[in-house]
Design goal:
A: mainly alpha, 13 helices
C-alpha cells in the first residue's frame, strides 16, 4: 500500500510538473504581456514608449532568455512563489488562494446535491425496475448527460430569476446565490451516479449472497444498504472519480456564467488579461486538487472494498 | 431507457423468430431508440450539408432594424425570420443551420483524430505488452489525472482557436478512451486461436495487429465513437460559449448562446433555440450509440462512463 501510494504521488507530481511546463511555454509563444502595460498617450514620443516597454519587460523579468526564465520560475515555484500578479499587484498564490474557499464551497455543494439526489434515484429505479419512477429517473439521467450545463444555467436563470424572481441571477452572497451554480455544476455527476447506481444495483441484486441474506431473514433495508449498496459502491466511486477532471473543467464555465468569485472565473479573467503568474497558479491549483482527489479515492477504494489490495 | 429496451429485446427475440412473420412495425418498434437517434443525427447532417439552401439569410447578415424580433410564426411582422432575430438582427434560424456545420464537423473530425491515435496505441499496448504497454498506459494515466478542459482553455486562449486547432486539441484530449477500449479487447483477443494461428503462419506483428486483431475490436470502437461524437459537440459548444475556440464571428451554437445571454432578461428566444439544437443532436448521437452498443456487444450493456 505504501509503495503504491508513493508511486501514485510521484506520478501525480510528474503530471503537475508537466502541466506547469506546458503552460509556461505556451505563455511564451502567445505574445508579450509587457505591451499590455505600456500607457499609450498622445504626447509621448515613440522612443519614450519604447523605453517604457523595455523597463516593463525588465521589471517582469521578460528580457532574459526563456530557459533562464523557466529555471527561475521552477526554483521560485518550488518555494511556493509563483510571482506577482500583473493585474492585482499581490502574490499570485495569495490572490488565488483567497478565492479557493469559494470554489471548494461550490464543488462540495455540487457533489452533495449529486449524491443526495442521484444515488436514491438510481437505487430506487433498480429496486422498482420498470416502474414509472424507473422511467423518470432513466430519462432524467439521459437528459442530464445530454443537456449542456451552461445552457441549463441560462434556462434556470430565465425561469427562476427572470420569470419567478426566486433566486438572484448572478452573484455570490448568501445561500440563495449558491443554489443555481451548485445545481448546474451537479447535473452531470448526478446523471452519472443515477445511471451507475441503477445498473450497479441491478447487477448486485441478482447475486447469490443477496438471496442468501434474504433467506436467512435479514431485513430488506439492511439487505439493500449493507449487502447490496456496499458492493455497488465501488463502481460508483470509479465513475465519480473518472468524471472529476471534467467536473473541474466545468467549474470554470459555471463560475463564469454566475459570476461566482472562485478559481475558475479567476482563471478565465487572468487568461483574458494575460496575467501569467495567476494563470500558472490557477492551473497549478486546479490540477493539484484533481490529482490529490484521485489519490484520495484510491485510498477510499481500499477502505470500501476489503478485497482490494494494492501491491 | 438505455438499458431496459435491450433487455426486452433479448427476451422477445425468440418469440419474434418463432412467430409467423416478424412484421416491419415490430422491427421498427424494437429498434425505436436507434431509429430516433439516427434520425436526429441525419436531420442535422442534411441541414449541415445543404446549409446555404436551407438557411433563409446569410448567417452573418446584420439588420439593425430588426433587432430581437419575435419568430414569424408568432408575429406576421415582415422581416422577422422563422425563429426571430438576435441582438444584431441576425436571423436565428439561418445561424442555427450554419452552426450545424461547425458542430458536426468538429464532432466527427475530433472523434476521428482521437481514434486514429487511440486505436493504434491500444493495439500496440495490448499486443506488445511489457515496456510499450507500460509507457502508453502511464501517459494515459497522467493525461487523465489532469483537468484537461482547464488546460484546453489556456491552450485556446494563448495559441488561438480556429477550427483546426479546436478539432486537433479535442481529438488529442480524448485519445485515451479508445486506447483503453482497444487495449482491453486486444488483451483478451490475443490469447485466442486465430492470433496464435497467424503467428504460427509467420505473419508479422503489424499484420497481426491490423489485419487480425483490429477487425475483431471494431464493434466497441464504433460504439465509443458515436457516444464520443455527442461529447465533442458539447465541449465545442462550451468553449464557443466562453469565447474560445472557433472564430467568434462564425455562427456556432455556443457562440449564439453567449450572444443571447445578455438579453435573457428581455428576450428568451435567442437563448432557447441554439440550446435545443445542441440537445437534439447530442441526444440523437447518444441514443444511437446506446442502441448500437446493445446490438453489437451484449457484454458492454449497462456499462457506460
Amino acid at each position: 500500500m505504501a509503495w503504491f501510494l508513493a508511486r501514485r504521488v510521484a506520478q501525480g507530481a510528474f503530471a503537475l510538473v508537466g502541466v506547469l511546463t506546458l503552460v509556461f511555454f505556451l505563455i511564451q509563444v502567445s505574445g508579450d504581456p509587457a505591451s499590455f502595460f505600456v500607457q499609450i498617450e498622445p504626447d509621448k514620443t515613440p522612443e519614450e514608449l519604447q523605453a517604457e516597454y523595455q523597463a516593463i519587460r525588465k521589471k517582469l523579468g521578460l528580457d532574459q532568455p526563456i530557459f533562464v526564465q523557466y529555471g527561475k520560475f521552477v526554483a521560485e515555484a518550488l518555494r511556493g512563489d509563483f510571482g506577482t500578479s500583473f493585474r492585482l499587484g499581490l502574490p499570485a498564490s495569495q490572490a488565488v488562494l483567497e478565492r479557493l474557499p469559494r470554489s471548494l464551497q461550490l464543488g462540495a455543494a455540487a457533489v452533495f446535491i449529486a449524491v443526495v439526489v442521484g444515488l436514491p434515484l438510481g437505487v430506487f429505479a433498480a429496486l422498482r425496475r420498470g416502474s414509472l419512477l424507473d422511467s423518470v429517473s432513466t430519462a432524467g439521467a439521459i437528459a442530464g448527460l445530454t443537456i449542456p450545463n451552461f445552457w441549463m444555467a441560462l434556462m434556470m436563470i430565465y425561469l427562476l430569476s427572470v420569470q419567478f424572481k426566486l433566486l438572484p441571477p448572478t452573484g455570490s452572497e448568501g445561500f440563495k446565490a449558491l443554489i443555481m451554480p451548485a445545481v448546474t455544476q451537479s447535473v452531470n455527476l448526478m446523471a452519472v451516479i443515477a445511471r451507475m447506481g441503477r445498473s450497479g444495483m441491478l447487477e448486485v441484486l441478482g447475486q447469490d449472497y443477496i438471496r442468501t441474506a434474504r433467506a436467512k431473514g435479514v431485513q430488506e433495508p439492511q439487505v439493500i444498504t449493507k449487502h447490496a449498496l456496499r458492493n455497488a459502491a465501488i463502481s460508483l466511486i470509479t465513475v465519480t472519480v473518472s468524471s472529476l477532471p471534467g467536473l473541474i473543467g466545468t467549474v470554470v464555465i459555471t463560475e463564469v456564467i454566475f459570476r461566482w468569485p472562485g478559481i475558475g472565473s479567476m482563471l478565465f479573467q487572468s487568461v483574458g488579461s494575460r496575467d501569467f503568474p495567476v494563470v500558472l497558479f490557477c492551473t497549478f491549483m486546479l490540477s493539484a486538487v484533481t490529482i490529490a482527489t484521485f489519490i484520495f479515492m484510491d485510498i477510499l477504494y481500499a477502505l470500501v472494498d476489503p478485497r482490494i489490495r494494492y501491491s | 431507457m438505455a438499458v431496459s429496451p435491450a433487455k426486452e429485446q433479448v427476451a422477445e427475440a425468440p418469440r419474434a423468430l418463432h412467430g409467423p412473420r416478424r412484421s416491419l412495425l415490430r422491427t421498427i418498434w424494437i429498434n425505436r431508440q436507434g431509429i430516433v437517434g439516427a434520425g436526429l443525427v441525419l436531420f442535422f447532417a442534411v441541414m449541415a450539408i445543404f446549409a446555404p439552401w436551407i438557411a433563409t439569410d446569410p448567417p452573418g447578415k446584420i439588420d439593425l432594424f430588426y433587432v430581437l424580433s419575435p419568430p414569424s410564426w408568432s408575429n406576421a411582422e415582415e422581416g422577422s425570420g422563422l425563429l426571430g432575430t438576435d441582438n444584431f438582427g441576425r436571423d436565428i434560424w439561418s445561424r442555427i443551420v450554419h452552426g450545424s456545420r461547425i458542430s458536426l464537423a468538429v464532432g466527427a473530425a475530433a472523434v476521428a483524430i482521437g481514434l486514429s491515435i487511440g486505436v493504434p496505441m491500444g493495439l500496440i499496448a495490448g499486443f506488445e505488452g511489457r515496456i510499450l504497454d507500460d509507457v502508453i498506459t502511464r501517459i494515459a494515466d497522467v493525461q487523465q489525472s489532469i483537468p484537461f478542459l482547464v488546460l484546453l482553455i489556456v491552450l485556446f486562449a494563448f495559441l488561438g482557436g480556429g477550427l483546426l486547432n479546436v478539432i486537433l486539441f479535442l481529438g488529442i484530449s480524448s485519445w485515451y478512451g479508445s486506447m483503453r477500449l482497444v487495449r482491453g479487447e486486444t488483451l483478451s483477443a490475443k490469447t485466442r486461436g486465430y492470433v496464435r494461428a497467424a503467428e504460427a503462419l509467420g505473419a508479422s506483428r503489424i499484420r497481426i495487429m491490423f489485419q487480425h486483431l483490429f477487425p475483431n475490436v471494431t464493434a466497441p470502437i464504433i460504439v465509443g465513437a458515436s457516444l464520443g461524437f455527442g461529447g465533442m459537440i458539447l465541449t465545442e459548444a462550451a468553449f464557443s460559449f466562453l469565447g474560445f475556440g472557433v472564430d467568434p464571428r462564425t455562427a456556432t451554437w455556443g457562440r449564439m448562446l453567449a450572444d443571447a445571454r445578455d438579453d435573457i432578461l428581455t428576450d428568451f428566444g435567442p437563448s432557447l433555440y441554439p440550446g435545443l439544437a445542441i440537445v437534439m443532436v447530442v441526444l440523437g448521437a447518444n441514443l444511437f450509440g446506446d442502441w448500437l452498443r446493445d446490438r453489437l456487444d451484449p457484454r458492454l450493456r449497462g456499462r457506460r462512463n
